[in-house]
Structure formats: C-alpha cells, structure tokens
Amino acid sequence: MESSSELVPFPLLIESNYRACTIPYRFPSDNPRKATPTEIAWIELFANSIPSFKKRAEDDETVPDAKVRAEKFAQRYGEILEDMKKDPESHGGPPDCILLCRLREQVLRELGFRDIFKKVKDEENAKAISLFGGVVSLNDAIEDPVKRVENLVRGILAGNIFDLGSAQAIIFVDNSGADIILGILPFARELLRRGTQVVLAANELPSINDVTYTELFEIISKLKDENGQLMGVDISKLLIANSGNDLPVIDLTRVSQELAYLAGDADLVLLEGMGRGIETNLYAQLKCDSIKIGMVKHPEVAQFLGGRLYDCVFKYNEFSG
C-alpha cells in the first residue's frame, strides 16, 4: 500500500548516480542467488525487531482479533526474511533497508494493522505539547540571535550553525513526540520569524512512530495561540506537505506531486532522522544547499560509518552549481 497518487522524482534531486540506500548491500560481482554477509546482517536486524512489532500489534485495540493477527504477522514476516536468506531475490530483492521496511509494512497492512504505534505517538505528542511553550520561551529569552539559533539547532543540527537567510526551506520530518514538537517546530518557528517560507514534509501513511502529515496538522492546531500563531509568530508561511512516503526511509525518486510542486524554489533541504538522512540519502546530491542529520541507532550503520552507536551525524552540502 503506497501513496494514493502518482509519485514523481524530487525536483531538487540530482538523479545521476543517485542511490537511495547509503550502505552498499551487494556488488555486481556478488552471486545474485546468494545473500551477502551485509544482507544477512540486515535481515537479522529486521528479524530481531519482530517481537516488539508483534507486541505493538497485539495491543492495537482498533483491530479485531489483534492477538491472532499479530501472531500471523510475526510468522509471515519471519518466513519472508528466512526466504530471503536462502534466496535474496525471492521477494522482490535483493534486500536493502527500503525493501525490508516495505515488506514489513505490507504484511501489517494486509492483516488489517494500519498504525500500531498510534497509542504511543499520541502519548508522546501530548507530553511534548505540554512542554512546547517552555522550550520556546527559553529560546526566545536568548537575545543574541546567533546564540539563540545555536540553542535551537543544537539537538537537531549537532551544534552547527548555517545560513538562515534562506527564502524557502524544505524539512523532511521524522518522529512524533519530542522530535517534531520540541526539536523541529521551534527551529521552524525561528525560520518563520526571519521571513523564511518553511515546508514540513511528512509521511502520507503511518510507519512506526513517524509523524504523518495529518497528525502534523493536528499538532500545530493544538499549539496555535488565540491569534492563530505559534507563540506570537505568524505561521502564514508554514506549509505542511504530504511527502507521498509510507516508510521510515525514503527514496527521493518517489515523492508526491504536491511536494514536488512546493519544492521547486527551495534553497535549503533538511533530511532529518536516521532513516531519511543516514540510512538513505546520506550521499544524495541536491540542486541546493542540504543538511542530513540524525542519530545512529543501528550497530551496522555505526560500523559502516566508522563511528559508534548513538553518535550523531551532521552532513552539510553547499550547492556550488
């Protein structure tokens, strides 16, 4: 189950030599009928996540017979992963993080599970909304604009400051809760205060705890003050876009037509989160300045990058065209 409309390439993407997945799972010389050690490691990573997904599915009160269906999910997805160990091309492979995510979501949706993380997302959003005013007030109290920006972006941009004179910025957002509400939105608010048009691009369909574009509308509606502003800042230049995506990773050759239209004049793109900014698109080249940022949460990614688990990655590319 993918986007309900036709997907198109992100217009700011330089498509020549683009490969969505950052890690090379196999090379042309590898046997197409035999899983590589890297593919095996990633299949095992996704297999190890099955019990936690099964538990979330069992607790989904919106699905009849959730416990029985959750067991079927665990069995079916586990069998798919075992098949791919024996034959990497058995389920549309060879496998990479995009395919492994897509197969997991496909099995869940076929069994009637639409959003197994909905409960935890709602809880985390409620907590973060209650803290939003305090976070923004602390930032606003910093008179030095450079220090204020540094404080805003320290969490999501690893302490680096970039040019905030952008006319338009596209931000591919990640998780619900503190990530979007206490990280991205205060940062977006500062951009708006400086006159920048900000486009927040969020998933069309639910996937793990990532915020969807409909949920983002609801969050901002709850954060607006009596004047329809974000703590006194006009949000008429804030746009929420459906990215067309339904996974925690993203292939930039497949985005919604809506986002493609809005992205035409952007001069800064930020891909936030491990899935969108590290596991995919870390080396993507764009026709504007770009930032890829996230925390490394998988040992396999840390090993590939030569770092440690929970290291933060910040990659800024200045467009020189």
TrEMBL record:
**A Pfam family:** ARMT1-like_dom
Q: In Gene Ontology terms, what is a biological process of this protein? A: coenzyme A biosynthetic process
From the Swiss-Prot or TrEMBL record, what is one GO molecular function term?
A: hydrolase activity
Q: Is the Transport keyword given for this protein?
A: no
Record's GO cellular component, any one?
cytosol
* Database matches in Gene3D superfamilies: AF1104-like (1.20.1700.10), Uncharacterised protein PF01937, DUF89, domain 3 (3.40.50.10880)
InterPro entries xref list: ARMT-1-like_metal-bd_sf, ARMT1-like_metal-bd, At2g17340, At2g17340_3_helix_bundle, Type_II_PanK
- Superkingdom of the source? Eukaryota
Cofactor field: Mn(2+); Ni(2+)
Signal peptide range: none
**Span of domain Damage-control phosphatase ARMT1-like metal-binding:** 168-313
Keyword annotations for this protein, in alphabetical order, are: Hydrolase, Manganese, Metal-binding, Nickel
Q: What is this protein called?
A: Damage-control phosphatase ARMT1-like metal-binding domain-containing protein
Give the organism, scientific name. Answer: Carnegiea gigantea
